[in-house]
Amino acid sequence: PSQLTGADLPIAAWAQVGTPVGWFHDRTNRLTAWLGLAGAVLCVGVLVCLHFLTGQWLRSLRQAAAAAARAGNRELGTLRLAAPTDEPEIAQLTGAFNRLLERLGEAQASQQRLVADAAHELRTPLTILRGEIQVALRRDRSPDRYREVLRSNADEVDRLCRIVEHL
Asked: Model-level pTM?
């Protein structure tokens, strides 16, 4: 049939139209380049955002590290790190660190008390020894008096030995 006009006639032929493949490849290559560029820009943007957000998150850790680095032996009992209210993980870490500092301060105070007590306990027999020796050397004495001073000194040396053994 020369004319196809109604739904009652079957289609007997069709026409296929072609287009140059080079045009299709050019558009595909251009689209690939744009997508690659957009992907690279997106990756750089994500990395910049990650760097900024990580810096904000690590700021609290840097502050805690700086405070810990500034701490000296005398500050252990009083130094406390500020816990951020908006970061629960770091707040938990600084809380644990503050409890550690408190225990260290208590241990340091206990150590200072022990050293002070030991110094006091050692000072007494040494003072007695020094005094008896100085009195004995001021003038000549009888051999019995020297023996008495030496026995007393031996007792004080025994006392010093007991103190040192207890330490």
From this structure: 0.50
